[in-house]
Write a structure and sequence with these properties.
The chain is of the alpha/beta class. It has 16 helices and 16 strands.
Length: about 425
């Protein structure tokens, strides 16, 4: 038996305990350090489970070890040696295609700093025929879902043509990420024929809250577009809203709005990148209002039962293709240092992503940078005793580290709670 390549550990020498985390599934287990030493020997010397159980101190010790290893096997922390290469490898389930960085809005929190349509130049994106080649290659990977996004993808004059081309070449789920302002009676039938899921941004519960981020008059137009989509068919619609300290009090109202509109709520955390990084100050809380929530022992136990470890899918289960055909681990890591290559320059996309992920990390600069950015390798987090639990998003760690003061504040607040949940400290 061998440890899965997806496993990472945190050792607490003081408590003589070890966390084993599966970065593939998000599951984790807390075990005594004595058990961890047995697992290490099993992994290094390829010792069988029967040998481990035979050498147990007594019957009680054997039964304890059997229970531990049953959990490790069922959650795929350990696998047979012939299965080790199948762990922590490529399994592309979602591909986002950013068709343009143009947009008909200038939202304050925009993570890509999308250009207004008036700032557009032809050099900023691929033409129709080249983008069709991109879509065909993306479809060849046969992910569960292809997301068309931007910018605002519907500002492209050839959007419907490209959407119909993708539908002809792809049988699985097509999702459209849009502000919905360009949905109208002329295109709705084409849209509903091709799109399986809509992800519509509104970022408010009424005109006042929406206009603060997305501009005046947007709220009612989005509501009317949703009603139009629903009028022409039953479609899966997700309505999204960004939350940070300044609007946390609107969560219940947003859920009520979604219930009223018969759509799924999608609550997103603010990420200080792109235009959002420039406007970070307007989303910050007053440091004088600092407050850390207190939890009962029962609430901490429940939190531990529901807590997932770091299992970011970027670059392995999902990728993003930008308007020039460059491939990135995800939309939030749309930086040149994370570029995995250009899709138009890859002859066989299936072979390219059919390689071993762990091997590819060693020679692909973008994946190598991705590995360095994982919380357990990141400079501000690698020595922390809860670094497998604080951050679910690599971009979130990197973006907040640009503001050391806020990073340390968030770190302090999260750590004070997570140490109790994970280790039972405090």
């Amino acid at each position: 038996m061998k440890l899965s390549r997806a496993c990472r550990t945190i050792c607490n020498v003081k408590q003589k305990k070890v966390v084993i985390a599966n970065l593939d599934t998000g599951q984790w287990i807390l075990i005594p350090m004595s058990c961890w030493k047995i697992i290490q020997q099993m992994d290094e010397k390829n010792i069988s489970l029967d040998e481990i159980f035979i050498n147990a101190y007594d019957d009680e010790d054997e039964q304890y070890l059997r229970n531990i290893f049953e959990k490790l096997l069922s959650a795929e922390f350990i696998v047979t040696e012939d299965k080790i290469s199948d762990t922590y490898t490529y399994n592309i389930e979602k591909i986002s295609v950013n068709m343009t960085y143009r947009c008909n809005l200038r939202c304050k929190h925009c993570c890509v700093d999308a250009k207004h349509v008036s700032e557009f130049t032809k050099e900023d994106e691929l033409d129709t025929e080249l983008l069709k080649k991109v879509l065909k290659k993306v479809a060849a990977l046969n992910p569960h879902q292809i997301v068309l996004s931007g910018g605002e993808p519907m500002v492209r004059k050839d959007f419907i043509e490209l959407l119909m081309y993708l539908r002809e070449n792809f049988e699985n789920n097509i999702s459209l990420s849009t502000n919905a302002l360009l949905v109208n009676e002329n295109n709705i039938e084409y849209l509903n024929k091709c799109v399986d899921k809509y992800d519509i941004s509104i970022d408010g519960i009424d005109e006042e809250s929406c206009s603060r981020i997305r501009g005046k008059g947007v709220f009612e137009r989005v509501i009317k577009s949703i009603e139009l989509i629903q009028k022409y068919g039953e479609k899966e619609i997700y309505l999204s809203m960004m939350f940070d300290d300044f609007n946390e009090n609107l969560r219940a109202d947003f859920l009520e709005l979604c219930k009223k509109m018969n759509v799924h709520p999608l609550m997103r955390a603010f990420e200080p990148m792109g235009r959002g990084g420039e406007n970070w100050k307007s989303f910050e809380k007053d440091s004088k209002e600092h407050y850390v929530e207190q939890y009962s022992q029962e609430e901490l136990i429940e939190a531990g039962n529901n807590l997932m470890c770091f299992n970011c899918a970027a670059g392995r289960k999902e990728i993003m293709v930008n308007p020039k055909g460059d491939i990135f681990p995800c939309g939030n890591l749309n930086l040149q240092e994370f570029c995995l290559g250009n899709i138009l320059e890859i002859d066989n996309i299936q072979t390219y992503f059919g390689r071993d992920f762990c091997d590819m990390k060693r020679w692909n600069p973008g994946l190598h940078m991705l590995e360095k950015s994982y919380p357990f390798n990141f400079q501000g987090c690698k020595e922390c005793n809860v670094n497998l639990f604080c951050w679910s998003c690599i971009a979130g760690v990197r973006n907040r580290y640009t503001n050391i003061k806020r990073f340390k504040e968030e770190c302090r607040d999260k750590k004070s709670i997570l140490e109790k949940v994970v280790w039972g400290e405090g």
